[in-house]
Design goal:
The chain is built from five helices and two strands, in the order H-H-E-E-H-H-H. It is mainly α. It has a two-stranded antiparallel ribbon with strand order 1-2. The chain is elongated.
Amino acid sequence: MIHLSARLAWHDAGWNGRICREPHLNSSCVVQEQIRDGREDGSEREHADVHVADISDWLPPCCRDIAAYADRGFTFIHGDPLDRDFLQPITEDIPPYACLPAPYRWMLEGNFRDTCETEGLNIRGPENPDKEWGWVYEPDRQVALLNYFWHKLKYGG
């Protein structure tokens, strides 16, 4: 059984692809770190109730979630969350009725051993055997976890 913990950021217009009608009043945005840290209240208020597909120069950090029930897609640029110079941004066209989930639980070093044991995975441990917190950092370990996660999500199991 795959352990999924999916939470869409709360949205005041039903995840229709539009920025909240009153984004500055949406206190649930501060619960998710990536939204809280990237939140720009001024820009969000300026674009209130505008569909993300109609914004060309900026996207709110909640855009990964707000189009889950939208009848229009949009373009998203994936950047390295660690802001390293060697990973280039990748552009993706997100179709209607889609969101961009991330398996954060699976990618945390503190959950790595439990995830491997529960899922029967044979993935090597961290280069530093004392590392017990933070993100799984090594690319081969990340790829192995993500491939398994998305395969299970796509095909069940």
